[in-house]
Fold this protein.
Amino acid sequence: MSYDDDGRPGQFVTVAVIDYGIGNLHSAHKALRLMGANAVLTDTHEVIKNASAVVLPGVGNFGACMTALRDRGLDDVVHHVVASGRPFLGICVGMQMLFESSEEAPGIDGLGLMKGSVAYLSSDVRRPQMQWNEVVVTQDDAVLSRNGESQWMYFVHSLVAQPTHEEHIAATVSYGGDVTAACRRDNVLAVQFHPEKSGRTGLEMLGRWLSIEGVV
């Protein structure tokens, strides 16, 4: 079965952007389509489970986002997709939700797909970080770096992931010290910055993800 832009039967879906009703989800969807992906914004379980790749964007409060995701039963869908080995991309709060917990919402569990927690940025720096900043790639990751070069991306966040396993940190950014900018674990790539708001550089990163992962 294949689906159209609204998740109805139609053209085959290559990328499902998870719609859980919070934040500006349309910008990620639009950026992926601009880079050639047949992307749909949907909360339909079957569509997401059968897509070639899945994106979890996010803007807002960790607790509200996790609650909305669970209320729609989409937390189990995310686990299904990741376990299947298909390419999965988490963006901003979508990255943070992959971890076990967040200081922003004590008592609310994250998805636990990456070990570690999410903490507030240092009180010594302005929160949120709302600016372009240089992403320094710390692993050999062809999606994050172009010809081995660092990339400038746009950040809007007050919290940052703190992975238990340092080998999962794929990139850092300097903001009151080195903080996590991206994580990679097998088929899961998670970024704290907003590629869909980072101009040509961000679009090129999304294009590399689609191409290298064999989505388009």
Observations:
- The chain has one domain: 15-212.
